[in-house]
# Entry
Amino acid sequence: MVSGGLTYFSKARRDKTQEALAAEAARMALFENDINLEKEDIDGSVVSYFSDHFENQLLFGATIHDYLGLNPKPSVRIEGGGATGGLAIREAYAQVASGLLDVVMVIGFEKMSEVNTSKGNEFIALASDTDFDFPIGGFYSGYYALMAQRHMHEFGTTEEQMAMVAVKNRNNAQYNKFAQTNSKMNPYGMKNMGKITIDDVLKSPYVAYPLKRLDICLMSDGAAVAILASEEKAKKITDDPVWIIGSGVGTDAMRAGDRPRKRGGVPLLPHEKKEWYSNLEYPGIHSFRAGREAARQAYKQAGITNPLKQIDLIELHDAYTSSEIQTYEDLGLTKYGGGGKLVEEGVTQIDGDLPVNPSGGLIGSMHAVGATGVMQAVEAFWQLQGKAGKFHGSDKTQVKGAETAMIHSHAGTGTYVAVTIMRR
# Structure
């Protein structure tokens, strides 16, 4: 990866069209990252957006590709729910690694404010099984509430531990000028926002027990651009490239209730032992099997045998505080059941052993769905270059001495998960 760019994220960017937001991120990637690259050097694009419904426009990827002046070069649109951005990064990586193209621009975007929040949640819920889930009144906060309850029952996870995730991510975002909840640094940020406490989270209204309003991610407008290049080209474009060393994708049933519950069925990562999980019914609805599989593939390719020791930071898909805790376990950062304790002990804080979501993640920074996984790649890229503070406007977000980073994109109730590992 040789460059990246972000827009300011907002609940509603009324000042610009979606095309103009994509151009804003592309300009940052081309002109604000100290690289030797012209638009004409780009061989093609991968366009990442979740839904045609927000803009009421089919083939919107072609519109964006054209608006950025990339015709007649090749372009492909990727859609995979919440994992769209991560899958787009993987597609661009595959195109470059295969030799198909030398330089690829990944353009992620969403403008969710084009409809009201209720309609937006309906569109997001279309990523569930509409034949089965809609007739029984299913919606995502309800699905995740059930999974959180099962995790609490199975492992003793608490609402206080979930609240710690919200506080961590929201407060990290207060040092990231792009973050939607940063009302001081982001001119388009939500007003009267700022740092929060565990008590604030616990007192916020329930949406679906045990999930409260402050346990749940944002809905956003914005765009993100990442530029990937072959090794030969990368060395000509920048003196400080970041290398993709591992990639994985996992899948699972659309309906979480269709997933098996097999005792002792946990796919083991290199540092794990079979006896740890001999009595655990897996995956059920307390874990994300797709996340475990995506991590397994990426670790194998990257040579990661102990992620807690070998990875320096993670940008993780925290749609809910509970799912961040679940994902710690799927990624093998702790044993299944240890996720709550991991955040309670401060391991995933910005100054902990393995910072998770130093950008603020989806809870603190943004969730413009098609842009989210691309944003994660850009954030990891800047971290590994040691430039997070420069771009964020505060050195407090920089993970000191970071050499290896992971990004994690998650769709549905764990239907698709994409994991990418990057190294300086």
